[in-house]
Amino acid sequence: MNNLIKFIEGLPKAELHLHIEGSLEPELMFELAKRNNITLPFKDIESVKSAYKFNNLQEFLDIYYQGANVLRTEEDFCDLAMAYFYRAHRDNVVHTEIFFDPQTHTDRGIPFNVVMNGLLAGIAKAESELGMSVQLIMCFLRHLDEESAFATLRMAEPFLDKITGVGLDSSEVGNPPSKFRHVFAEARKKGLKLVAHAGEEGAASYIKEALDILGIDRIDHGNRITEDHLLLTKAARSAMALTMCPLSNQKLQVVPDLRNHPLPYLLRHGLRVTINSDDPAYFGGYVNDNYKALAKYCDLKADDFIEIARNSFLGSFLPDQTVSAYLDVLDKYVDSF
Ligand code: HPA
Ligand code: ZN
What we know:
The chain is of the alpha/beta class and 337 residues long. It has helices at 2-10, 26-35, 45-51, 57-67, 74-90, 102-106, 112-130, 146-156, 181-189, 204-214, 229-237, 246-251, 263-268, 280-283, 287-297, 302-314, 320-336; strands at 13-19, 93-100, 133-141, 165-169, 193-198, 218-221, 241-244, 272-275. The protein is built from 17 helices and eight strands. Hypoxanthine is lined by residues 19, 22, 57, 64, 169-170, 197, 200, 248, 278-279. Belongs to the metallo-dependent hydrolases superfamily. Adenosine and AMP deaminases family. Adenine deaminase type 2 subfamily.
């Protein structure tokens, strides 16, 4: 087991499901609150951490949007991103595709440009200092209406060459993918990749809608695909990637007992499953902690983790040549271990 843990830690990997706002550690939250003269509803870091107990997705989202309130300036967004890149680098993440939620910021008066310029400054630093590759995925908040998503896409217009794709997050049940069919079609026309959270709390029919109506390129979470076998086999045949997040699932009571996590079943059924951290500051672990949690609770061997790490590159939005180069690095690591 110890050997497997060491092997997992050193595996070169990509992270494909990470909300940058969800990487805001309580320590940085306090630092930014001080810098921006904001009074937090918590007296210290310990009381922040003890507030992180969630019965469902919505209870988490309420706290997560509140935390984001300390982010005000380009420097704040840059510091937030850099803290994540350094941490992910320690987990041997060599490529990452990060989500950001512009509406969380523009709706409280922070200009879109401030968010973008801050994140882009962080990304430039990660690329030059850490040698990581980074892509940006702009998520629409699904509890808001489609017009607000369109307004966000218009704001992003000057930055579209720096944004790889669009996604869909926030409160799933009651906000099906079809609500955003027009804005996703528009994003596709602009050449953007498409992803959506689906089947985390929502039924398998939400995954079907995301695939058939939105035409997504990758499924975020997708846990409940196990409930529709036809959909599962079709997704496997088309090599559809799923960005799964075990510790998130455990903390949000999606899978309270990780021994029941669907990832091993989906892996055996040929789905391109990946392991990611979602909102690591809130769910108690970065990407390697998520790999290790499944190593502990599920029947997965070194070969399975190699396949999962391979999937993280194959499921990425990198050009084929870059994917091949990363797979070479992965193969060399496996060979030399
Ligand atoms: N699900 C939906 N919305 C989110 C999540 C999630 O896991 N994390 C941040 N926003
Ligand atoms: Zn997520």
